[in-house]
Amino acid sequence: MEKRLSVNLQGGRHSDVYFSSSFDDLLKKTEEWGDNVFWVFDENSAKLLFSLPEKRIVLESGEIHKNISSLEAIISSALESGAARDTRFIAFGGGVILDMCALASSLYMRGARLTLIPTTLLSMVDATLGGKSAIDYKGGKNLVGTFYPADEILIEVSTLSTLPDKEFRCGMGEVIKHAFLSSSTELFGFLEANKDAIEKRDRSTLETLVLMSLEVKKEFLEKDPLETKGIRSFLNLGHTFAHALESMEGYSVSHGEAVAWGLGRAIEASSGLGLVSQSFSTSSLNLLRSYGYDVDYRIGKDQWEAFLQAMRKDKKKSNGVVNFVLLKGFGEPLLMPLEDDFVSSLTVSP
Amino acid sequence: MEKRLSVNLQGGRHSDVYFSSSFDDLLKKTEEWGDNVFWVFDENSAKLLFSLPEKRIVLESGEIHKNISSLEAIISSALESGAARDTRFIAFGGGVILDMCALASSLYMRGARLTLIPTTLLSMVDATLGGKSAIDYKGGKNLVGTFYPADEILIEVSTLSTLPDKEFRCGMGEVIKHAFLSSSTELFGFLEANKDAIEKRDRSTLETLVLMSLEVKKEFLEKDPLETKGIRSFLNLGHTFAHALESMEGYSVSHGEAVAWGLGRAIEASSGLGLVSQSFSTSSLNLLRSYGYDVDYRIGKDQWEAFLQAMRKDKKKSNGVVNFVLLKGFGEPLLMPLEDDFVSSLTVSP
Fold first, then answer.
1. Could you point out which of A187, A327, B165, B336 has its C-alpha 20 to 30 Å from the C-alpha of B266?
2. The complex's ipTM?
């Protein structure tokens, strides 16, 4: 187990990111903490272990269960297991489990310890770092949550070897987003050059990919840990479009697919406004397409009103106006409102 | 409206405490924020206003409603009112309302703005400063909560003029606690010298009382905003006993009465262990008695097991052992475990 990254977050808290050399190496690390732990799994992630620890809860899988009932189930179960404030909540699973366990841990006696073990690519590069915990609420994605950085994030990329292709592409959406947000073109180049090794899930290629992606995220987080300065919200590139799509479709679209689609929309918007060149837009959309994303998808005319309503629930509002993250180039995001007609031209089938 | 105190808390956040010169002065301050607000009242506090603001929720009064249903009601109602992340949640009421509104505000889109307007003495000196938000959960008092400092705390002591005596004595319990925790004997002396003016609710006497009390609290908070260093937990002097009593009695005992009783127990424990002199103990207990507290109350023998179980749920546990805050003298708290037999000798009727 090797510490590869340390990220300073709010109030002097920091998250350490460890990469393990094998699944056994990962488990050995968690055994160091003895019995004062409480594990949170979902049905899928629980299958990755031969035997489950005693103090645990196994929740049903899926975004639909990212709700207040599951949150209560975690807290109640932790309480029954005798958890105290110094107990370590260990989330083992994808983003839904990580977000919910982090929220439960942040609320439990006003904050227990927290370790995240992401088992999907999306959660490795997205849900782990930055301390965003959440559940969905009344149609609002991640509407209820806290900022609560994990003490440790443990990454074991072999958990990705059995990940369905669809799930893997989900995570790649966020990785590509990080490539656009990086001021260096290194990650973009890595993605163009290593597509085969990535899709074959080559262990060391994936480790590099995850680490590079987290390094980009770290840059934005440390400048704006509580999302109060407008810097951290740049990490939402593509997400206003994506969340509206997810919300409108009743969450049937996977987050990563929605993000990739949203990235496409944000790049087209940036290009349409002359912020980036046509060639930047073309190569960016082509990278997304090469990884299998349907960036050319458009919603139906009859869905526009629902899409607009969903978009207006976006958290990046100030004085009632929704702001979109656009790009002026690699690592040059900016925040601005867009006219409804312009958004419609980018999202609705003609 | 005058800013009288500013307290630095975690992550560079700070709470400003304002004292208003009249009820009108208070309302004028809140009008500055325009329409981007969401008010939280309970049935009692709502009566203090001639007309209620449009964007509001009025919850039922009482600790029994400090639960997850009320929390959900606040969040849902805020959502319906169109609240965004930059909306200011304004809590107007006693500790229950303040704690719940603070929790809702901390969770809403991962943190909306927060103003606390305490209308009881207890909430002025206890629930406002320090960022502790909470609801009760499954018999555990304040088991679910966050650290989330209010942006502003507005104090208008005329709200105390109609406060029932019982409620007023509740708040005095915490004030007296602060007198014990202050390294100066100024507050203790003020309480001995101004009992009549305090009980007559003289406006300027109460302002001094509240301000002095908050100044003591500020000292502990700034040294340990997240209660990680053991310093802030000194503010729980008397509370391990108090919470167990409250929990055991199904919350029928008021918080302040329970705290005063707990203070008595903590002082007797300190005296029993030779940490403070007999005369310190006598004058301290006499001050509590002079303000009408039943510090000589003892639980029945048949209640001991329930009391012990309730005490073991205390949050100030490390490695499974409950720690009590005791005193070595004014402003000299310390944290230590106590034997069950010793606790029983202090709490159970012989």
1. B165
2. 0.84
